[in-house]
Q: What sequence folds into this?
């Protein structure tokens, strides 16, 4: 019995010894590659899911940052385009005002001659009104927002020209009623037409200034900087989990995003500086030159109205002085070329006319006011008007040209910044995907 038991025990022992031993826990290949400690089954399961979530998040952050940056750059590009159009419209409406006052100055001065006015002045008057008509049409086509005001202005201009034609027709025939029509035309011009033009000037000046105030570069770079912070945080988390200091894809995404931030900041900052330069330079010359030229022609018209009205000379001289103060204020400095000295020369001739009229030498005052000989009041004024016109036209063309050239360059930078931002999103996606593939 004991012998049988011994055989059974031996058989049992042999069978136990021959059975397979429990498998030892050894590090998996993925753990070895990823640098994770052995036996992290839970971590092995959760990490790919964590990576997939972060891949979506970081790619979304990069795409959103790129889209916001591009949107702000596009807004600035549109504002620059609007600034160019609004500046051109401002020049148009200023030209309308100047030519209306120029026509009035020519008509009132020719009225002093009596009978048939000088052919040269008649031609200049017709040219000024023809330019008003052409510019009204151009302005209405260029800016729909101004069409209602321009239509009202056109009616006021027609009323003025009709009254002025009656004045000139009666003056040619020697009828005293011509002076009444002339005063009616000039008064109507200043009470109806000019306020409409002034409102148009103010509106377009405000629009153009607003358009030349783009978003500051510090605001434009915020989305990109946020994306850089997110990329840095993710790289830090990846480094902690995988014991690798840098993820190539994340680093490439950071570099692309940094390029986007740099281009966006540079473009926005440069556009802001350019707009500031224009506002203080050629744009200011356009505004000041047009104001000076309008005031100068207003003054010249009042010089003639003073002599036409005779007994009301003091009233028109006060208006002349008001306009003269505006001219002096706007022409002081170097921005309007020789206008300051030319105005001073004309003002001296005007003072002689006033002195003659005040002394009772009305005929001599009229002769001095209507003479076009060199050194006369009219000759000096024509030189001033031509000089101001040239300065304003040159400055206006320079302003719109600078805005247009910068606009196309800005659009190129916008496209590059958008491409860099999208490339960053793709690099970040690939960088995280590489880590996920290590678990496959």
A:
């Amino acid at each position: 019995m004991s012998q049988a038991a011994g055989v059974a025990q031996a058989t049992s022992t042999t069978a136990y010894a021959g059975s397979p031993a429990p498998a030892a826990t050894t590090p998996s290949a993925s753990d070895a590659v990823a640098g994770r400690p052995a036996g992290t089954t839970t971590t092995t399961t959760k990490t790919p899911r964590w990576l997939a979530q972060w891949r979506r998040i970081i790619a979304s952050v990069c795409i959103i940052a790129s889209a916001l940056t591009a949107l702000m750059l596009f807004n600035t590009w549109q504002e620059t385009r609007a600034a160019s159009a609004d500046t051109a419209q401002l020049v148009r409406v200023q030209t309308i005002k100047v030519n209306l006052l120029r026509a009035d100055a020519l008509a009132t001065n020719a009225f002093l001659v009596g009978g048939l006015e000088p052919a040269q002045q008649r031609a200049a008057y017709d040219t000024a009104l023809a330019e008003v008509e052409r510019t009204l049409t151009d302005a209405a086509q260029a800016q729909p927002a101004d069409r209602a005001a321009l239509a009202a202005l056109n009616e006021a201009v027609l009323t003025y020209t009709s009254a002025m034609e009656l004045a000139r027709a009666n003056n040619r025939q020697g009828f005293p009623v011509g002076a009444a029509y002339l005063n009616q035309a000039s008064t109507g011009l200043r009470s109806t037409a000019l306020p409409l033009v002034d409102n148009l000037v103010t509106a377009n000046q405000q629009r153009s200034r607003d358009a030349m105030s783009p978003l500051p570069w510090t605001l434009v770079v915020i989305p990109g900087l946020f994306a850089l912070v997110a990329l840095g945080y993710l790289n830090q988390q990846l480094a902690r989990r995988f014991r690798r200091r840098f993820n190539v894809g994340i680093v490439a995404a950071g570099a692309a995003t940094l390029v986007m931030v740099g281009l966006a900041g540079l473009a926005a900052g440069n556009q802001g500086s350019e707009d500031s330069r224009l506002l203080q330079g050629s744009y200011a010359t356009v505004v000041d030159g047009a104001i000076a030229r309008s005031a100068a022609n207003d003054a010249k018209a009042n010089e003639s109205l003073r002599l036409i009205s005779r007994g009301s000379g003091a009233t028109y001289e006060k208006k002349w002085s008001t306009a003269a103060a505006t001219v002096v204020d706007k022409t002081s400095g170097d921005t309007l070329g020789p206008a300051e000295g030319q105005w001073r020369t004309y003002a001296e001739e005007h003072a002689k006319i006033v002195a003659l009229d005040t002394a009772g030498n009305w005929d001599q005052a009229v002769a001095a006011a209507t003479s076009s000989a060199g050194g006369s009041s009219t000759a000096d004024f024509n030189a001033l008007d031509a000089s101001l016109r040239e300065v304003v036209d040159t400055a206006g063309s320079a302003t719109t040209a600078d805005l247009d050239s910068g606009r196309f360059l800005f659009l190129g930078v916008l496209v590059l910044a958008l491409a860099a931002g999208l490339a960053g999103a793709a690099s970040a996606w690939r960088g995280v995907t590489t880590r996920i593939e290590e678990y496959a």
Summary: The chain has one domain: 44-85+94-437.
